[in-house]
User: What shape does this take?
Amino acid sequence: MTEHLSHVPAREIFAQWDAYQPTEKNNPAALAAITQARLLAAARKRTAVNPAARQWAVTPQGARRIILRAAGLDAELWHRPIDSFNAADRAEIRAAALEAVRVFGSIAHGI
Assistant: This one.
């Protein structure tokens, strides 16, 4: 995480911005690099759920369980439709979901 811009002095960031030279349009080297990256991305085999995502509970079931636990409810109720909860529980679930979005958003921005 030491590579994040918040750990770099502003003068270094501005120096890199000032030194930036945009790639000219239709540059053969740039087009070849883009084509190579696209081929590598297309050839990569993907599973239905990434194992790392599963560890972070980023599956529909895992996300529902996390939100229910954060709302102070039983995680085993993840399969119930939202309408089956009373208004107070739904308010707690909503608050927990909004907080989870904030937390996972900050994690994503940090990465």
About this structure: The helical segments are 10-19, 28-43, 51-55, 60-70, 87-110. Residues 33 and 39 are 10 Å apart (CA to CA).
